[in-house]
């Protein structure tokens, strides 16, 4: 055939076809027409012969189609593929994303066909698309298409009301998975029933806002007007996720649209929402907090989905620090996955909503994204929904970010980003469903950027034209999306006017009924804790103080387990020595150091069925090379965690210790969220140095110190902040003890009532701790640290605990404890049970009763806290003043141990009272302690000095000096000031 095709007859036939084409191109087959056009570009007739020969040899492509391949040169094919690639990468810049039509972005040059050598005369030329076409980019699976057809399809796919960013993802399978879904010839259209369902959901979204606006004209709502499509989008996302097996969804979001989400997504009772606009106090029988504004509150409910499945939705409470809730939500989801054994991360997921200004502007967004794939922090992908109203309060985007999109930060973590016009309801739903599918398939983060607008000012009261006059001129001319979608469905014949009116009437009637119910709404006992927290007491329900000691045989059993390494394991020789020393501590019962005491606390809590999680920078080894919770094999590189093998059958990851990413804000927020989920867990965050806690100050201020009072949520998170003056300079000395004490909500001028008959049983102590917002401790012995940690769990309530963790005391020869101090037997003072010592008496004292015998020999009573005690004690011994000076350690600073301080004042009636600290005068505990000491003196009838005598560093702007010699001089002086008589 190859030869015969080139003989005279065939050549004559070819010439005849060419003559017909020259007279009328439409008179020949389109493929031959394309071939003849290509002759002008130098394609040889021999190419046709090659095509027929290939067909005779079994090629599945017809001879004419194969011949058409020759219509384009290799260079043309490459240029066409580059054009397609340009649309895949940059098509979103041309997409119609802005409902206001104010987007002035220029079309990228890369999308101009002329850049690739194509002109208008090429638009109707046919090109061979090959296997690319077979993927479904164009219908009918025809491999030959005109350039015009290709460009039309590229614009339909990549430049409509959805803009896709995914080509930055380096994983080929993920890109192809998305591309196949995006480039499908035609997306499956929504059925009429589905469109009416969207309309109904949109009606609830829009009419809820307008109803509130009419009923509460002067109230701040931070409404969703301008982004009403968020509600049908979110509900579709939740429905799709539930169909994939998700049973629980945690939601974190700022204030914009929060009431609408509460009402229409989470389904908080409307009567309750309306009643909150009247200022009704949500008082329970046992619990009363300060409350918060209605657009900060959270809640949780079970709700059905369209498929009939049920899903649990919880919306976390949050402050006005817009993105601070992000890592908190992640931590809560991770805890849910742990407690439900959801190792595949299929049944619990998180949704985060963001504003455009905060998503690009708040650093915690990146910190949260950075944790998304870390083994001990991942939740299997978070779905991010950005409510992009194109203005941050009053700031234009061009002044609030340096990137093209507010979502560009997510590209750093290879998350796909779907930009969508917020006025195209079906496009919003489609992108939300695609985001759900992505998370279900790949278990990584995905971002939906809903480009919308804010119909009114920032809080409905502001005048937006002050700062955005042109934008609000356009907004005033814009019909709301509910009316637009009504008209669209009527034009399509999907809905009649009667159907549309019926939907609106039904929604309005339901809103009115709930509004009437709100008039007589009576706040019920607050559902302030989830089922895991059943039985835990509120501040008004006094809890019993429990002992924290452990039977000696149990202690030793745990001690041997946590000092045992596998026989074939090859640890570093120094670590082997550490573990041998720890085992000797258990065998002899002597010299328990700080790290061993902590390990014993963890091990005994694990054995009692609790979960222990410790995270922070370098916590596995410990910043000061003291913990070594994870031991590394020096030959294989493998690792072993002794606390993961305390007892037979221990649950996987029941003990979790994890080196965190190098941030504080995000990780502390994560651990706080983790601790929110279940009280039967000791969750700890340790700062590398306590000084670095200031990087997480928002979490301390907004969640940890005030969360219970604002949102009625208890939290037992323990925070370890290495603190102590060792001459290491202003960045490695102070955990800013004064800040945490200043946040304590204790009255310094009121002494809690003491029930003397229950002195040793706890008396008032439980109530004193319950009625305070957080605990602050600075302990000095390993045994007391052991009891402090165990006390966090062995209570009927939970409170945050801030620990000024030691540095020098980790290896201080005097900071050791005997194993008997961990036992649950009566101690050598005859006190029943063993528990944390809030105050440690001077070593010369013995009687621990409320009214001990007086000791007139002491002329000075020094109160102190932390490691300075050991320096005071050593210097006192050196100066021979042990007989005249008593040194008392306050192990717990908040709540203040009024009862024990007064006991010591009774013991030493002739001694002048002094406070000694390492920190400068304007820092440390002095400002907190001084008024409380004076309150104790007043209650005892002792003379009160104008100010409590002070021994410490003078006031300073920096926390510490950076010069070792100066540090030593300052330390010597404060000791002299304390002990000088």
UniProtKB/TrEMBL annotation:
EC number(s) per entry: 1.2.4.2
Record-level GO cellular component terms: mitochondrial matrix; oxoglutarate dehydrogenase complex
Origin: domain of life: Eukaryota
Main localization, broad class: mitochondrion
Keyword hit for Transit peptide: yes
InterPro entries for this protein: 2-oxogl_dehyd_N, 2oxoglutarate_DH_E1, DH_E1, KGD_C_sf, ODO-1/KGD_C, THDP-binding, Transketolase-like_Pyr-bd
N-terminal signal peptide: none
GO MF term set: metal ion binding; oxoglutarate dehydrogenase (succinyl-transferring) activity; thiamine pyrophosphate binding
Enzyme's top EC category: oxidoreductase
Catalytic activity, reaction form: N(6)-[(R)-lipoyl]-L-lysyl-[protein] + 2-oxoglutarate + H(+) = N(6)-[(R)-S(8)-succinyldihydrolipoyl]-L-lysyl-[protein] + CO2
Keywords: Magnesium, Metal-binding, Mitochondrion, Oxidoreductase, Thiamine pyrophosphate, Transit peptide, Tricarboxylic acid cycle
Places the protein is found: Mitochondrion matrix
Residues in Transketolase-like pyrimidine-binding domain copies: 592-812
Required cofactor names: thiamine diphosphate; Mg(2+)
Entry's Gene Ontology BP terms: tricarboxylic acid cycle
Family: Belongs to the alpha-ketoglutarate dehydrogenase family.
Function: The 2-oxoglutarate dehydrogenase complex catalyzes the overall conversion of 2-oxoglutarate to succinyl-CoA and CO(2). It contains multiple copies of three enzymatic components: 2-oxoglutarate dehydrogenase (E1), dihydrolipoamide succinyltransferase (E2) and lipoamide dehydrogenase (E3).
Protein name per its UniProtKB record: 2-oxoglutarate dehydrogenase, mitochondrial
């Amino acid at each position: 055939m190859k030869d015969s095709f080139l003989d005279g007859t065939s050549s004559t036939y070819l010439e005849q076809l060419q003559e017909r084409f020259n007279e009328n191109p439409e008179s020949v087959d389109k493929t031959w027409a394309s071939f003849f056009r290509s002759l002008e570009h130098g394609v040889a007739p021999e190419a046709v012969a090659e095509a027929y020969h290939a067909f005779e040899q079994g090629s599945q492509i017809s001879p004419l189609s194969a011949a058409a391949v020759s219509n384009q040169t290799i260079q043309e094919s490459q240029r066409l593929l580059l054009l397609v690639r340009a649309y895949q990468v940059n098509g979103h810049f041309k997409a119609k994303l802005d409902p206001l039509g104010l987007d002035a972005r220029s079309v990228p040059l890369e999308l101009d066909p002329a850049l690739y050598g194509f002109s208008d005369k090429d638009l109707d030329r046919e090109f061979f698309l090959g296997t690319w076409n077979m993927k479904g980019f164009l219908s009918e699976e025809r491999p030959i298409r005109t350039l015009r057809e290709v460009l039309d399809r590229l614009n339909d796919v990549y430049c409509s009301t959805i803009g896709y960013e995914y080509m930055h993802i380096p994983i080929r399978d993920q890109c192809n998975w998305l591309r196949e879904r995006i480039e499908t010839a035609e997306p499956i259209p929504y059925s009429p029933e589905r469109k009416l369902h969207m309309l109904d959901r949109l009606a609830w979204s829009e009419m809820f806002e307008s109803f509130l606006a009419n009923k509460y004209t002067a109230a701040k709502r931070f409404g969703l007007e301008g982004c009403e499509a968020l509600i049908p989008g979110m509900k579709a996302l939740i429905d799709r996720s539930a169909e994939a097996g998700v049973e629980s969804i945690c939601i974190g979001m700022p204030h914009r649209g929060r009431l609408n989400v509460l009402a229409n997504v989470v389904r908080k009772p409307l009567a309750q929402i309306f009643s909150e606009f009247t200022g009704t106090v949500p008082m329970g029988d046992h619990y009363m907090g300060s409350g918060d504004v209605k657009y900060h509150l959270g809640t949780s409910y079970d709700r059905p989905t369209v498929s009939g499945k049920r899903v649990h939705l919880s919306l976390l409470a949050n402050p006005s620090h817009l993105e601070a809730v992000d890592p908190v939500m992640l931590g809560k989801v991770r805890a849910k996955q742990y407690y439900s054994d959801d190792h595949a991360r299929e049944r619990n997921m998180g949704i985060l909503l963001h504003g455009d200004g905060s998503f690009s502007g708040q650093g915690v967004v990146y910190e949260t994204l950075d944790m998304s794939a870390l083994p001990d922090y991942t939740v299997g992908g978070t779905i991010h929904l950005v409510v992009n109203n194109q203005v941050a309060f009053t700031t234009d985007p061009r002044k609030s970010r340096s990137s093209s999109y507010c979502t560009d930060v997510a590209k750093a973590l290879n998350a796909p980003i779907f930009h969508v016009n917020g006025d195209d309801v079906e496009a919003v739903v489609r992108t939300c469903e695609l985001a759900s599918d992505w998370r279900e398939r790949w278990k990584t983060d995905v971002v939906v950027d809903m480009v919308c607008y804010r119909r009114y000012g920032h809080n409905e009261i502001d005048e937006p034209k002050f700062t955005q006059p042109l934008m609000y001129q356009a907004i005033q001319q814009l019909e709301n999306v509910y009316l637009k979608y009504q008209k669209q469905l009527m034009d399509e014949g999907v809905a009649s006017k009667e159907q549309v009116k019926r939907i609106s009437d039904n929604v309005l009637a339901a809103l009115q009924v709930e509004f009437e119910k709100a008039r007589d709404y009576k706040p019920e006992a607050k559902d302030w804790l989830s089922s895991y927290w059943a039985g835990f007491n509120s501040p008004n329900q006094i809890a019993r103080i429990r002992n924290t000691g452990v039977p000696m045989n149990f202690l030793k059993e745990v001690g041997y387990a946590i000092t045992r390494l596998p026989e074939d394991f090859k640890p570093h020789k120094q670590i082997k020595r550490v573990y041998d020393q720890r085992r000797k501590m258990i065998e002899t019962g002597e010299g328990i150091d700080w790290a061993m005491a902590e390990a014993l606390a963890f091990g005994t809590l694990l054995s009692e069925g609790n979960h222990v999680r410790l995270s922070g920078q370098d916590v596995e080894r410990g910043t000061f090379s003291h913990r070594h919770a994870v031991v590394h094999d020096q030959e294989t590189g493998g690792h072993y965690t002794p606390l993961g093998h305390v007892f037979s059958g221990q649950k996987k990851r029941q003990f979790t210790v994890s080196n965190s990413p190098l941030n504080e804000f995000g990780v502390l927020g994560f651990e706080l969220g983790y601790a929110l989920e279940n009280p039967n867990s000791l969750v700890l965050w340790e700062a590398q140095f306590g000084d670095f806690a200031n990087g997480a100050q928002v979490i301390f201020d907004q969640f940890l110190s005030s969360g219970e009072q604002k949102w009625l949520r208890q939290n037992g998170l323990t925070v370890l902040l290495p603190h102590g003056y060792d001459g290491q300079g202003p960045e490695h000395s102070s955990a800013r003890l004064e800040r945490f004490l200043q946040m304590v909500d204790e009255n310094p001028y009121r002494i809690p009532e003491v029930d003397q008959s229950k002195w040793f049983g706890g008396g008032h102590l439980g109530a004193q701790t319950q009625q305070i917002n957080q605990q602050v401790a600075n302990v000095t012995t390993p045994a007391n640290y052991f009891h402090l940690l165990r006390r966090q769990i062995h209570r009927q309530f939970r409170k945050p605990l801030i620990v000024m963790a030691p540095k020098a005391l980790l290896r201080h020869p005097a900071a050791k404890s005997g194993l008997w101090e961990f036992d649950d037997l009566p101690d050598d003072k005859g006190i029943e049970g063993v528990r944390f010592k809030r105050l440690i008496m001077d070593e010369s004292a013995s009687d621990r009763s409320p009214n001990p015998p007086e000791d007139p020999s002491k002329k000075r009573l020094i109160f102190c806290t932390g490691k300075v005690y050991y320096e005071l004690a050593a210097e006192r011994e050196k100066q021979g003043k042990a007989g005249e000076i008593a040194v008392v350690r306050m192990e717990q600073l908040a709540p203040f141990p009024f009862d024990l301080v007064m006991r010591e004042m009774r013991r030493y009636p002739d001694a002048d009272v002094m406070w000694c600290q390492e920190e400068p005068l304007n820092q440390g505990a002095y400002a907190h302690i001084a008024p409380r000491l004076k309150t104790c003196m007043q209650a005892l009838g002792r003379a009160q000095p104008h100010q409590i005598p002070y021994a410490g560093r003078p006031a300073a702007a920096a926390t510490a000096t950076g010069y070792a010699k100066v540090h030593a001089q300052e330390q010597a002086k404060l000791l002299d000031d304390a002990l000088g008589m």
